[in-house]
Write a structure and sequence with these properties.
Layout lengths: L11 E8 L2 E10 L4 E6 L12 E4 L2 E11 L2 E8 L2 H9 L1
Antiparallel strand pairs: 1-2, 2-3, 3-6, 4-5, 5-6
């Protein structure tokens, strides 16, 4: 289970899928507090992914905040753009 780069808490499973031999394999995790999501991709994607890259996904803008190898997978941590500011304002 990945750890949130922002608050260092274990991240909750947000999405599972079943593949041959594995039922309900976790493929996406989320930290609701920081609006951070992480999903595993093939490591070859590392050539195309960079810290700070922004992407539009489901109508929301996200930014890559961390890349981490986990076994045979590359974990891509994305945070909703603007969420960090909202969090700080909320805690102030
Ligand atoms: Zn967090």
């Amino acid at each position: 289970m990945p750890t949130c780069p922002q608050c260092a808490q274990p991240m909750a499973v947000a999405q599972t899928m079943s593949v041959p031999g594995i039922q309900d394999k976790a493929v996406r995790w989320r930290c609701a507090r920081d609006a951070v999501e992480v999903g595993g991709v093939h490591p070859v994607q590392l050539a195309h992914l960079h810290l700070g890259d922004e992407a539009e996904e489901d109508g929301r803008r996200t930014r890559i905040i961390r890349l981490e190898m986990e076994g045979a997978e590359l974990l891509v941590f994305r945070q909703a753009v603007g969420a960090d500011k909202q969090t700080r304002a909320g805690n102030a």
